[in-house]
Every structure is written in structure tokens, then in C-alpha cells.
Structures
1.
Amino acid sequence: MVTRNDQLPSDGDDNSGDQRVEVVPHLAEQTSTGRGDEAVQRERSAHALAGTRVPWRMAAVAAAFIALLACVLLASLSSDSSSRESDGEESAPSLLAAAAPPPNAAARSLVMVRGTSAVNIGCRSVQEGEPCHRHVQWAMTSGITTDGDLFPGLTSDSPFEAFQAAMQADPYARCPRPCAAPSAAGAETQAEAEDGGNKTENYSDTPALPDLIGWKPSSRMVAEGQWCSAHEPEAGWALESCGDHPGLQIKVLTYNLWWWHLFGRRHGGGGSAGHLIARAGSRQPFDVMAFQECEDIGWVLSDAGAAQEYVALTGPHALCIAYRKAAWSLVDDGADNVNEDRGDQWYGTRAGMWVRLRHMESGQVVFFVNHHGPLPIHTGGRCGGEATAYNLLRLISSHARVMDVIVLVGDFNAGPMTSTLRSLHGRLHSLITGSKFGGVDHILSSCRRIASTRNLGPGGSDHDALEAVIQL
């Protein structure tokens, strides 16, 4: 079930004249900066210092002293900010520290976790390594003692979910609503009231959907003893479905945005990625789009002139999905970890972010998965390429239904001849592969019928955007 929550304007906005993007920040985004409790405390100290105000009338000597103190503090904060730039995904600077506000920040709404206007949001428990998890751990171990007034009604013995719910109000923590939070029902009621009762569609009262596809493992296991170990599927097991609504076309996109460089250093490159999307969708709009290295999907959609046409979802590990709201409605969504980077190039775990979407006119359901694969490139990460592939297939078969059309896209960090892609071939059909980094970007589907495919070029990224039109 998808419920409603709030959205913050971008820093400096006054809530007037913004172009609002309908965003679903149901999954807190992971940026793998590797910062722990000390970084959380530095963040909070910096924000507290930035909010300090000087009294109106002060003696000249006191004013001079405070001015000197302010210079020292600013130098300290600047040094702290510089130190953060040594972290980041795939040898990039810290995505949070390096990304400066875009020039047109006042004219659009950034993707934020919480604020004053209603947006869709789902509930989930956060995973270790996400910003929210680090902030909650700080709150439970240190914050409850040093800043107890920030957590009214909580004690050091309160459960993790209670602190997660309390941290929702902190935009720097970027916490999703925990499913077990005691205030969840109240938050849903408040959000619905703010949205005028326009509640997101809920299928819990509709007739039961067809059965799950179901996972059929063999006795062979790969990466045995690792958390990301996996069984190979039974011989002959494959995902084969073009749905039951012939004639319907589904246009999809996958695009690694190279966020730290294109948006962090080049401040969006004049909207080059968004303009590429707008050109590619001018004659036939995209039904579903997947982005990797995506820190602010609202920025991308605004640059594409599509802010009002799509519902956007932000996920862990800098994954984002956007679907066209005039044609599709959300049935279900989630994310599951499938592998982890290898120790010699470790930035964290890797997931498959998924949505089930129902076509409003025909009723056809699409199961769409966005994946950013483990590092080092072409290795399959900690548990290897086979484990990545089999865990993705298990994810799909555990959540998708028999007549769903399956689409799996992303930057797999694995080329077509790696064990990752060879293990997927024969289970899914490869529709198009990119050319960058040995062909690491892919679109696969349970339906082999395609009306067209295109490599759209980089649009300022170091990856090419890929397009496929699936013909049911």
C-alpha cells in the first residue's frame, strides 16, 4: 500500500512559485560516503552554528570578538567540507558535499524526504549503510543523551523503528516511514487530509491477482557461505511472458547519470541529460524510466520539461524510477539487496529496485527492475556474477505475477560476456546493450518482441542512455 507524506522545498525556497515534482521518496537513497557517527555529529554542529544569531545591540569589543570567532568557525566548516570530498561512489567526490545547488533552484523543487506538501511515500525498514541508518544509530547511542529534546517520548530503550520515525522530520537523515512506526496511521491520515483526500490507489480490496511466478532453485549454489550466495535456477526455468494484451507498446529508458560529475561539478551541464530525454520522448513519451547514480530525480525531470507528467520514486544506492502517471498506476514497489562490491573497490551493497505498474486502460501489469551492479567492473563483486544474476531472478520471481511483463534494466557494471549476463541470458531476453565500458548498460525483458531500440548517446554522462519499445 502506498500512502502520503510531505516534501521540503529546496534550500532558500519560500514555497512560492515552485514547479512541484510529484515524488515518491519511499526508499531512502544511499550515497556510500562511508561517514559514521562523527560525520553525523559534524553535520549537526555545522547546521547549529549556521543558525546562530548575533544580538541586535552589542558593544564594539564584543562585536569584534564575535566576528573573529565567526571567521574561525567558517574556516573550520570549510575544512570539514573539504575533507568530505575524499569519499564518494566509484572514486567520485562526496555526492552530498560536492553537489552545489543548481542555478534555477528557486524555480523548481528538489527531491527531499519530508516537508510541507503531500507526496506519495511507502514504508520500509532502512538498511545498514544508508544515511538514515547512520543517523538513527547516532540518535540511539549518542543523540538521545546529548540532544534528548529532539526525541520527545523516546528513551535509549526505544526500538529502532521509533527513532526512524522521529528522524523523518530531519531532511539530512533522509529517513523513510518505518512500517512498524506507531505514528504511521496518524501520518497517513494527515497526509490524506493535506492532499484533499486524493488517496493513492490501494489494491488490497480488489480481487486476488494471479499467483506469484515462484522461485525454482536447483541444488547448485554459488558463493556458498556468503550473505549474497544464491542457487542456480532449475534447468529450463525462464521468465517468458508478453502479457495478455496484444498491441500494447511499453517504452522504457535506462540511464546512468554520472551524478557527481554532470550535476555535482558541472551543475547539470545546462540540462543536457534532461534535454536528451525530452528529445527522445517527443513523439512517444517514455512509460517507465530508470536512473542510476541519481541524487535528485526532480532536477532531471524538470530539465526534461516532464515534471508534471511523471511520478518519481527514489531508492537506495542512488537508484530512481519514474513512470508516466497519465497511463500507469502503482501496484507495489520495493528493493532487495542482491550483491556487494568486492573489498578492493568497496562502496557498499547493490540492490534491485522494483515496481509493479498497472496500465490504466488495458489492465496489463509490468514488473520493472532497476539495478546498478557491483564493482570492480566485470567481476560480479563479492559474490560473483552468477550470484548477482540468480539473486535478481529470485527477486523477480518472488514478487512478480505469472502474467506480468518483466523488464530488467540498469548499469550492471558487467559486459555481455561476463558471468552476470551469461547467467541471465536464456532466462530473460536481451533487447539492447550499450557500448560504454565494454557494454555494461542493458535492457532485458520476458518479452522478446520489440518495436524498436536506440542508443541515445551520453547527454553529458559517461554512459549512454538506452531506449527500448516493447511490443506486446
2.
Amino acid sequence: MRLPVAVDEITANWLTDALGRRHGGVSVSDVRVAEAMHGTASKVRIHVTYAAGGDAMPPTLIVKGGFSAHRELMYREYMLEARFYAGVGTQASVGWCDGALRHGPVVAPDAINRALRFLGVQPQDGKDEFDTVGLGRRRSTDDWTREAKRP
């Protein structure tokens, strides 16, 4: 499957193919771009109309990709992120100072803790760097989801 490199390439046919890989029988009849947010990677919010199999599917989706001119410069970062979300990745970190690479790249199970050490975080009270700065209160997607559902 060819990935879109421009927002106007996010079509009903492309989305049908993309969703069909995990949700067989889903067919998309229309895609309407609601908002495009460009940054390191672009996030495009789309409204989706399903032709078939969409009863349990959301009417709005976010498509994240390299839709900006700098995408060629970001290829490596995009690949790391894609591999991570595909289930073969791990943590990754890099650190820059005054325009020069000073840390990494590090791809390892403790890459975030290494990046925090690079930033000067010292573990305290038997905690790792991640917990020391308070990030550990939500170590998993389930933790974030439970907190978001609280009244």
C-alpha cells in the first residue's frame, strides 16, 4: 500500500485499503478534511462516511504523516515511529544542544531515561528518571484512558 505524501492523497480508496487491513469489510465512500495541523509530522483530522462495515467505526479519524515539504528530512524519525507503532519498536531518543547532536540517537528499552539523564534528571528515592519527573503515573495507554474517562 502506498502511503499518501500530500493531504489530498487521503482519499476514500486509500482509507478503505488502510482500514481494511485490520477491519475487513470496511468500505469508505467519502473523506472530508476537517483540519490539517502541520508540525514535525502533520496530523489531519478527517470526517469519514462509510459505505459498508462502518457501524463500529468512528466518524472522525486522525491521519498522521509526512505531509509537509520537510518530510524528506524527517524520514528516519518517521520510520522509527512507524516501526514502534507496528509493534517492532522500542524507545528512541536524541538530544541536541546549540544545533549539534549531543545525545544519541539511542534506540533501546531505556532510551527515554537516558534522554532524561542527558537533560540533567537524577533518579531519586529508588525511582528511575521517568518516575522521578512524574511521568510514570501514566506508563500505559490504559492508564491515560482510565484517567480521561474520570468525571
3.
Amino acid sequence: MNGDGNQRFSDEEAETILREAARLDRHDSVNYFTRDRLVETAAELGIRPEAVIEAEKNVLAQRETDLLRTEFALESKSEMRQQWSKWLGLSVMLFGINMATNGFKFDSGLWFIYPVGIVGAVTAAAWFRYITNPPTKDESQFQEWLKDRQMNKSI
């Protein structure tokens, strides 16, 4: 170990050293801390209990937000899959109707191509928007989803 016991570290360096030491000390076990243990450990470092409780609230709020964002992302992907599934179902149904009414005579008209093409273009445009501007990167979409979610829960 280089240096003497009076070596000085900035707050950021001390935090990094303690995080690394905690990581190295785990020995493949998962360590969980109770609030009381956090407050006790913080007191040894000269940190007020109120600051620990405030930090705990912030961490729990961030955890909740992260879970909600994950749910939002999964729901957005599911909606996109549903749009493609609906388009495919519509295509098969209209193709079946076209074949049932015209038989397999392709020279008498394939009218089903028009509605399938239009709905397909709209679905492709939604997919392109989803790929180029994912809902997970758009804070306004997330906030709108949260508002809708809260409204649905209150009903």
C-alpha cells in the first residue's frame, strides 16, 4: 500500500474507493442493507440520518421510475407487434374474401391489394416512427403514458 494513513481524498475519490472496496469484499454473495444499517454506517462517516433517509427516498423513487420506464418500453413494443398482427390478419381476411368472391381468377381483379396496401403503408409509417424516434427516448410520450396509466388505475 502506497502512502501513509493521512492520505487525503476528495468526496468523489472516497466514494469510488468505498464502492470498489464493497464490490471486492462481496465474495460472490449478495449484500443487502437495512435502513438502520445504512443510517449506522453513514453516522460512522459523519453523515446525518436525515440525509440517508432523503437519499433512500430518491433511490426508491428512481427504482420506481426505472420499473415504469421498463413497463412503458415493453408496452410500446407490444403495441407495435399488435399493429403488424392486425395488418396481417386483415390481409389474410381480405385475400380470402377476394378469392371467395372472384375465385382464383387473378385477371378479374385483386381489389384487396388496395386496402391492404393502404393499411400496410400506415403501419409501416408507424414502425418507421417507432424505429427513428423510439417512445422510450421521448419524455413527453412517457409522461402521457404515465398520465393515462394513472387515469386507468383510478377508474
